[in-house]
């Protein structure tokens, strides 16, 4: 029995509000549907965030419909759980998958205690599906996980949650790998967009399929290391064997541009990207001396021809000592002047554009750097939470 595990397809996502990016996302989904058909899989399991939003426009649902119909024609079930993105925020609203479920194009697993059962030869596969549980429902999720009863002779859990070991930030995770109940052959996970897999001592596999395209710039690093795509899972034996399927997607790169050699670097980039079959998306880190915005943008314009999109991702330009002195026009050894210098720097048009109030909070932050509680309080104030 062979499954294709895919996740976080985010149909309808329009990165940087580009038509081409919306199309890219459909294209990645289409590639995976074609893999499912060509590999004659027994089912596709989708671990959440099929759609980017819980109320996708008709054209987006239609795209999903087009590809899921092809699967249906080949009698390949598409088994799905809702992710956080495709969970309606308002009570009483229905999941966007529901329409496709009514058309029998999607099996939507909503009761975690009732597995979807598939039989083939001597394999009887029980697929337990959990909808996304938000942080507030963490305890309920743990209770349900512990109450699951595995059935003969293969078992899979589908989840759409953050894991502490992969997303170690407060509020970002609801589960630790240790919370997963024992006795399952394959733990199919969604939510985290970068691929991750590990084999447990008992031969079972925890697998985060990741998103089939780069949805956010944070995913570039993982993409360069592990690519993007899905997992082809052979569950014929107790220990699953997994093959990586890679999608062919539009490249996205983080590039550094030093303002001191900006023209030649831009020319080098143009020469490089001219050979790409898909125009890339560039996330530009500006370094070196500060540069006027309009001058910078006019220089970057040359990249338009060879890229799908470019954007300034980070601005790490620093001011020279002379410029800083001009800013305060005074002796920098005096503490008040240093504070003024920082406030001036942060509130200037061409740098960070902080409000004077926020800039003062930054000063307070620097002065209280040893006091964790105070620092946390100040960061919250600055972030406005
Ligand atoms: Mn997602």
How does this structure look, described?
- The protein is of the alpha/beta class and 385 residues long.
- It folds into three domains: 2-246, 4-Layer Sandwich (Purple Acid Phosphatase, chain A, domain 2), CATH 3.60.21.10; 251-318; 332-385, no CATH class.
- It has eleven helices and 15 strands.
- The protein has helices at 19-38, 58-73, 97-102, 138-147, 220-226, 262-274, 293-300, 321-328, 335-347, 356-367, 372-383, and strands at residues 2-6, 43-46, 78-80, 107-108, 116-120, 123-129, 154-160, 186-190, 196-199, 205-208, 229-234, 241-246, 252-258, 281-287, 309-315.
- The chain has a six-stranded mixed beta sheet. The chain has a six-stranded mixed beta sheet with strand order 5-6-7-8-10-9, with no helix packed on it.
- α4 links the parallel β6 (123-129) and β7 (154-160).
- α10 packs antiparallel against α11 (372-383).
- It is globular, with a radius of gyration of 25 Å.
- The two termini are 49 Å apart.
- The mean pLDDT is 92.
- The chain binds manganese (II) ion (MN).
- Manganese (II) ion binds next to loops.
- State the helix count: 11
CATH top level of the largest domain?
Alpha Beta
Domain count: the total is 3
Overall geometry comes to globular
Which percent band covers the strand fraction?
15-25%
CATH topology of the largest domain: Purple Acid Phosphatase, chain A, domain 2
Helix share of residues? 25-40%
Which class of secondary structure composition applies to the elements? alpha/beta
Largest sheet: 6 strands, mixed
What would you say the CATH architecture of the largest domain is? 4-Layer Sandwich
Total strand count, please? 15
Q: Could you state the order of secondary-structure elements as H and E?
A: EHEHEHEEEHEEEEHEEEHEHEHHHH
Which spans have pLDDT < 50 for at least 5 consecutive residues? Answer: none
Query: What would CATH call the homologous superfamily of the largest domain?
Result: Metallo-dependent phosphatases
């Amino acid at each position: 029995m062979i499954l294709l595990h895919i996740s976080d397809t985010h149909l309808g996502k329009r990165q940087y509000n580009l038509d081409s990016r919306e199309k890219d996302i459909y294209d990645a989904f289409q590639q995976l549907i074609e893999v499912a058909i060509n590999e004659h899989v027994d089912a596709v399991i989708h671990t959440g965030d099929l759609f980017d939003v819980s109320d996708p426009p008709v054209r987006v649902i239609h795209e999903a419909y087009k590809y899921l119909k092809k699967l249906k024609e080949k009698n390949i079930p598409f088994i799905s759980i809702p992710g956080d993105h495709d969970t309606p925020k308002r009570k009483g609203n229905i999941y966007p998958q529901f329409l496709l479920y009514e058309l029998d194009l999607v099996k939507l697993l909503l009761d975690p205690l009732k597995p979807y059962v598939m039989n083939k030869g001597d394999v009887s596969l029980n697929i337990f599906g959990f909808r996304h549980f938000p942080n507030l429902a963490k305890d309920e999720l743990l209770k349900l996980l512990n109450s699951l009863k595995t059935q003969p002779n293969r078992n899979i859990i589908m989840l759409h949650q953050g894991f502490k070991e992969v997303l170690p930030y407060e509020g970002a995770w609801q589960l630790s790998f240790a919370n997963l109940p024992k006795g399952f052959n394959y733990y199919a996970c969604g939510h985290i967009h970068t691929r991750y897999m590990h084999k447990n001592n008992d031969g079972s596999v925890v697998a985060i399929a990741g998103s089939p395209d780069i949805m956010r710039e944070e995913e570039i690093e993982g993409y360069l290391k592990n690519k993007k795509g899905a997992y082809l899972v052979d569950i014929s034996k107790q220990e699953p064997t997994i093959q990586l399927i890679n999608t062919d997607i539009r490249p996205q790169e983080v590039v550094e541009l030093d303002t001191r050699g900006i023209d030649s670097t831009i020319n080098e980039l143009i020469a490089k990207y001219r050979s790409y079959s898909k125009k890339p998306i560039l996330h530009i880190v500006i370094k070196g001396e500060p540069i006027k915005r309009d001058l910078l943008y006019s220089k970057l314009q040359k990249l338009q021809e060879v890229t799908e999109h470019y954007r300034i991702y980070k601005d790490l330009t620093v001011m020279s000592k002379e410029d800083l002195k001009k800013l305060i026009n005074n002796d920098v050894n005096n503490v008040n002047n240093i504070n003024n210098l920082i406030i001036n720097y942060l509130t200037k048009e061409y740098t960070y554009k902080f409000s004077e109030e926020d800039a003062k909070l930054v000063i307070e932050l620097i002065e209280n750097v040893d006091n964790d509680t105070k620092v946390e309080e100040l960061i919250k104030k600055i972030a406005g939470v």
